[in-house]
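lol ok so funny story. i was supposed to be doing the assay writeup but got distracted and ended up predicting the structure for this chain instead. priorities right. anyway since i did it might as well share w the group, maybe its usefull for someone
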Amino acid sequence: MIVLVTGASSGIGAAVARRFAREPGVKLVLAARRADRLEALALPVPTHLLPLDVRDRHAVRAAIEGLPAEFADVDVLVNNAGLALGLAPAQEASLDDWDAMIDTNVRGLAYVTRAVLPGMVARDRGHVIQLGSVAGTYPYPGGNVYGATKAFVAQLSLDLRADLLGTRVRVTSVEPGMVSGTEFSDVRFHGDSTRAAGVYEGVQALTPEDVAEAIAWCALQPAHVNVNRIELMPVAQAFGPFAVRRT
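and the output, tada:
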C-alpha cells in the first residue's frame, strides 16, 4: 500500500505518517514545504520525501508525475495540508489571511486530488481521504472563511463519490474538532504562542494520534466499504445552540 500524505512535516500529517508506517508492506510519500522536518521523521518503511507547496498548481502536477516508479501507484491520498489564519469577524478580517486559506485549503487540496485521481481511476482502486473540520458544519464567531473552506472539503468529497460511482475508488472526509499538539493555533494567531496555548487551557483535546487512528481505520476497511464522513470531537467539546442577541 502506497500512502501519500500532504502537510506531513508536523501535527496530524506527521502522526498519519507514523500510523501508516506501522502497517505491513506500506510505502510512504510525504509531502510538505519544510523538507528538513520531513527528513527528521526518519520512519522505518520505504519513504519518498516530496518538498512541495500544494498551492503551486504546476509544481503539484510535476511532483505527482515525477514520482519514482516504486512510489507512483498511490493507493491512499491523505489531503492533510491546510491552515486557519485569524479569528477576526468578517468585516475586520485580513484579505491576505482569506487568500492564504482559500489557496491552501481549497485550491491546494483540489490540485493534489486532481493530480492523483486519474491514476486511481485507471487502476480501479484507491482512497482519497480529506482532512476536513467540524468548522465546516458548525459555525462560530471568527470562523468565517476557514469554516467555508472546510465546508468545501466536505461537499467536494461527496461530489467526488458521485463522479466515481462505478469505480472502486473511495472518498472519505475526516472532520475533527479541537486537536492539541499541532501548530494549528500558533499559525492561526500568527505566532502568538501565549494566545495559542490559551485555546486548549483546561481542555483535554483530541491528539494528532487520535485523528490519525480514525484516518487509518477508514483506509483499512474492506475494499467494498466507503466511509463517507467521520466526525470526532473531544468529550469536552460540543456544538452549541443557536445564539440570539437581544436588545
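The mean pLDDT is 94. Strands lie at 2-6, 27-32, 47-51, 76-79, 126-131, 169-176, 229-232.
back to the writeup now i swear
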